[in-house]
Amino acid sequence: MKEDQYHIPVLLEETIVALNIKPGGLYVDCTFGGGGHAKAILARLNEKGRLIAFDQDADAGKNLPALLAGKPDDERVIFVPQNFRHLQRFLRLHHISAVDGILADLGVSSHQFNEANRGFSIRFNADLDMRMDQRQSLTAFDVVNTYTEQRLHKLFEQYGEVTNAKTLAKRIVEVRRTTSLRTIDGFKQALREIVKGNPNKYFAQVFQALRIEVNDELGALKEMLQQVPSLLKPGGRVAIITFHSLEDRLVKIFFRHGSFDEPEQHPFINTGTVNELKPVTKKPILPGDRERKDNPRSRSAKLRVAEKIMMV
Known about the structure:
The chain is of the alpha/beta class and about 300 residues long. Helix content is about 40%, strand content about 15%. It has 15 helices and seven strands. The longest helix has 16 residues, at about 200-215. The radius of gyration is 21 Å and the shape is globular.
């Protein structure tokens, strides 16, 4: 499958420039996907450079031959079919203790949205699935069919910013007693009476919340970020592309403070944690007008970059 059919890499040039790639360096692509970012990194590496690509989605692994076109035995590339929350563990298995750069593009790939049977998109009727890693058991149907009203309320409010999250949760619990919510059409039909505003936008927010919950996206992001400082070499860089405010806030706070808690301002007490990362840019890097026009899914993308500083 061609890369551009699978997924158009977002903020590609900006990301490659931000990583400040060394030809003989060691780099990690935490979200291989269609291989767009990985291909650009590999093109800048010499015979001593190495690229380790992670992706928990089995479909992404099928794009590896395109990356290795003409060089199927390229020893510079290692593919790890795992969630990036296990970053350090699998790097150690490959005898890697420190790297020059880490990249993560947190967006759902176009391929995942366009594959009807994956259940990510409101455009198709399929089982309410949304698992990025098909090896896991929890699906979106399990969430709407088993979670308590209170838990559903919190989920839709926090992860989807759904305006009537409480009403939505109550409706789901009421409806599931007599109606199956297993399919996307069945789910949408059962909730049509309580939809607020534009139905497409409303269900996009609902689906985002379910997808984040099913794949524990924020939990995985936190675990990965906490491993970054110890994995980067001094001067090494980490580049994270986010697509919604929940992710962006976590990345921004961690890059600034080295933890996920905003430090309290106290004039006499310094309780701040030691932060080995320094943001490279004060504000996130955004797609240009041309990219937003050519690739509408890039519109909400934000790239944040930090560098490992030399501790004295």
